[in-house]
Design a protein that fits this description.
It contains 8 helices and 9 strands. It is of the alpha/beta class and 232 residues long. The strands form 3 sheets. It has a 4-stranded antiparallel sheet, with helices on one face. The protein has a 3-stranded parallel sheet with strand order 4-3-5, with helices on both faces. A two-stranded antiparallel ribbon has the order 2-6. Helix 3 links the parallel strand 3 and strand 4. The protein is globular, with a radius of gyration of 19 Å. The model has no long low-confidence stretch (mean pLDDT 91).
Length: 232
């Protein structure tokens, strides 16, 4: 454990935990400190001025990162017939109907993103207790219940990230890899913040985006000046 401790201490050197950094500087600090033996994931966490226990303050959506997420997602599609063939052709990893529902009920979940055609939702609805807690339930609001399975599979493979506010009013997501150029990371971060901004619910009062921080898998969290990511 000692070496992990040393790395954490070293990573925090030169970072003022109370300071808000402009996005450009924050990305630069993250990249400098991402020195693990693997390509670290860069994550964003946003504190929002909402109480998700109220239905009119729920924040949910999807963001197509302009430079991809750097992750290769396994995509599962619930579809039949021609739509199942279309999903396979688009590069879906797992495609099926009743037999896929049965597999998932047994705990065989070989996908990271789940898409369904609208006619399959009667079947897929039975999987709410399995897929719901994992954040995998298809939803028309984020484009994962659709007849256009080709576009949905392409978006999932290409770097679309779903977001959903948690109990404490926090949204977080992976927005790239430490190996990305600073410009690509900044573009992805701005695109994500813009998507969350546009998903502002009707019931949100006061300051909507309160705090923004970015970090890499093994690195420290760095607070970002919100107006440098809001395009202001």
């Amino acid at each position: 454990m000692a070496h992990v401790g040393k790395r954490v201490v070293k990573g925090r050197e030169g970072i003022d935990r109370t300071k808000l950094y402009p996005l450009e500087q924050a990305v630069s600090l993250i990249k400098e400190r991402a020195n693990a033996k693997f390509d670290e994931t860069v994550e964003i966490a946003m504190n929002l001025g909402v109480d998700p226990r109220h239905a009119d303050q729920m924040v949910r959506g999807v963001c197509n990162l302009p430079n991809g997420s750097g992750r290769t997602l396994r995509v599962g599609v619930f579809a039949r017939g021609a739509k199942a063939e279309e999903a396979k052709a688009a590069g879906a990893d797992v495609v099926g109907a009743e037999e896929l529902v049965e597999a998932v009920q047994k705990g065989e979940i070989n996908f990271d993103r789940c898409i369904a055609t609208p006619d399959m939702m009667g079947l897929v609805g039975r999987l709410g207790k399995v897929l719901g807690p994992r954040g995998l339930m298809p939803n028309p609001r984020v484009g994962t219940v659709t007849m256009d399975v080709t576009a949905a599979v392409a978006a999932s493979k290409g770097g679309s990230v779903e977001f959903r506010v948690e109990k404490a009013g926090i949204v977080h997501a992976a927005v790239g890899k430490a190996s990305f150029s600073a410009e690509k990371l900044e573009e992805n971060i701005k695109a994500f913040v813009d998507s969350v901004s546009k998903a502002k619910p009707a019931g949100a009062k006061g300051t909507y985006i309160q705090r923004v921080a970015i970090s890499s898998t093994m690195g420290p969290g760095i607070k970002v000046e919100p107006n440098t990511v809001l395009g202001a």
